[in-house]
Amino acid sequence: MKRIRLNILGIVQGVGFRPFIFNAANKFCLKGSVLNTNNGVVIEFEGNERNIKDAIEYIKTKAPKGADIENIIIEELEPKGYNKFLIKESKNTNINKISIVPDITTCEECKKELYDKKSRFYNYPFISCSSCGPRFTVLEDIPYDRANISMKDFPMCEECSNEYRNPSDRRYHAQTICCPKCGPILMSNDTKINIDDIVKYILEDKIVAIKGIGGYHLACDAKSDIAIKLLRERKKRPYKPFAVMMELEDVLKNCIVSEYEKEQLMSPKSPIILLKQKENSVISKNVNPKINTLGVMLPFSGMHIELIKRSGPLVMTSANESEQPIIKDEMKLKGLINIADEFVNHNRRITLGCDDSVIRCLDNKNIIVRRSRGFVPQGIKTNKSGPPILACGSDLKNTFCIFNNGYATPSQHMGDLMNKDNFDWYVENIQRFKKLLNINFEYVACDYHPGFQSKVYAQSLNLPIIEVQHHHAHIASVMVENNIKEDVIGVCFDGTGYGDDGNLWGGEFFIANAKEYKREHHFEYVSMPGNELAIKEPWRMGLGYLLNTFKTLPDIEFVNRFEKDAKIYQSIINKDNVFSKTSSVGRLFDAVSTILGLRDITTYEGQAAVELESIAKDSGDSYYFEFDNKIIYTKSIIEGIISDIKGGMKNEYISSKFHNTISQIILNTCEKINKTTGIKKVVLSGGVFQNLLLLQKSYNNLKSNRFEVYYNNVVPINDGGVSLGQILICIENI
């Protein structure tokens, strides 16, 4: 006889792990106990040595679908003579480690019950079990138990209580267990409603605000031009694509889907995935005007499953006013009165608001655009030690990140902090995470940028501050994900980042490690006519690049459209300190888009570049570019584009040539750095690399020339990943 203690770390709470262990103990004739603690799940097995070994292997290979075992610490103890196996009450050990699972999409067993007329859960919108349902968004405190989640508002009926206490039942210790007798209900104007009522609203081309898992969605018929046009007018969102929720069968009919993309759609995380839309798609083109990708997700809760089954594909977009936080409770619905025709609520409190996650897929890897529902609050093991740290992130696409006991825990998507409501929500969520993790920060990391709200907040904490250069943080985020310790060639392309010289960087080649960096090469500086206005008005960058390239502006349609502005800017653009200067590749993409006549003024971030990517048809050619004194010059690229415009080349092929050129610049520059340093590891990061065409071309070029290539797969490749990089750099510099 032997007795061992297992401490299992990772995502092992809220996924039916204790019932799984209970059944494993019975399967292998073992006695002992299992309990949740703040430091994972602790198990004691006593029994035959062979059976114990088999049970451990069973745990490693057969763990519940939502579990993610990071480590199993095994300790041998003196036998005690246990006579049974118990599931003990959760224990708060104050070890300051969170291991709560993110929200999990409805499992297959629950779906069967949802459709089973004999089941007491038939058509029940809030069905869940020990393996699925809301987790993070109902959490008030840890450990994850009924008393610490908003489901405590709903005392269990006798049937639910019996299942909850029955070790052989699938809902044994399922903290969100409920049924039509004792659980939440759907309501409209304080009156109980059902799914058929919502479908009726939808089929009347109405816009419906629906309370879901992490907040409200605005929903309407995804096939109706009328409904979507109305939604765009009311939400003041003329072009930004909407996400569509539909059943898998409809996804396959309307989109081109790889096996890997299908797996991600069906995963417990159930994110929005950006897919190529088929030409014969029945989804209204008003959903995603001027681009060929469609953001798609499968229904992820009982309510959504029933709704989509009866209504067909629906637009499901975050219910908020432009640039505002997602709405999670009825108190904030006033802002939607002029947008939604109907309001569908439920009486389960959402304690932590959380947007839908958004990803793109490339070569069986995820490129995360927005990391929220389904991913948060899963921590990232860093293999680093250090004191508790708060990393404040960037002001755009903000996430913050908390480091403690070797784990970095990024927050859900916070949005842009220049908006007061977003900033208030940001501060509130930092305090909530601090409470959940039960820690006091000893250091704070933030961006260099003197005007960032995140930096102002960092300074208000009266803690030692480590300021981090924006693009270095991007590169470091990839290094954390891949446990890279040595120097890398860091390629960071984005729209805006504050540089060491006070200029706006964004087309950078670094030699970098976790502690420091050296700016080795960069794109040439170009003036930004109108300064920050040029970010939302790409025509200004178009003039900036043309005036940087030509003494006499070329006779093309773009110049004729902006003839008066061109004359004004031509007289002042070269004067010192008039306009900001930028090396940003994001701004270069904007300039090419507007010069081609695609997008003069943007209505959402990255729109000009997205539309430029969307039209590209591979030509195999590229433009000549010049490289001198570690600066990459764009003049010859712009000259080549103008020559092709005058020669009548189609925009589709000019776009392709431009993408080929940027990927060729990446390869040539990395080869130059490699010749002098011998570094073969290349890290790609920054919002420009959300462009899959550019990322794929760059990756293939580098790999075929024997470089080791890494890019973000765990946190967003855009500014949403900056906070993770700040953590690593802070650790190395304290």
Provide key terms for this protein.
734 residues; alpha/beta; Alpha-Beta Plaits; Nucleotidyltransferase, domain 5; twelve-stranded mixed β-sheet; seven-stranded mixed β-sheet; globular
Provide a concise account of the structure shown:
This protein is an alpha/beta fold.
Characterization of this structure:
This protein is α/β, with parallel strands linked by helices and 734 residues long. Among the domains are: 2-87, 2-Layer Sandwich (Alpha-Beta Plaits); 186-359, DHBP synthase (Alpha-Beta Complex), CATH 3.90.870; 521-711, Nucleotidyltransferase, domain 5. The protein contains 22 helices and 32 strands. Strands 6, 7, 8, 9, 10, 11, 12, 13, 14, 15, 16 and 17 form a twelve-stranded mixed sheet that branches. A seven-stranded mixed sheet has the order 29-30-26-25-24-31-32, with helices on both faces. β25 and β26 (517-523) form a beta hairpin. The chain is globular.
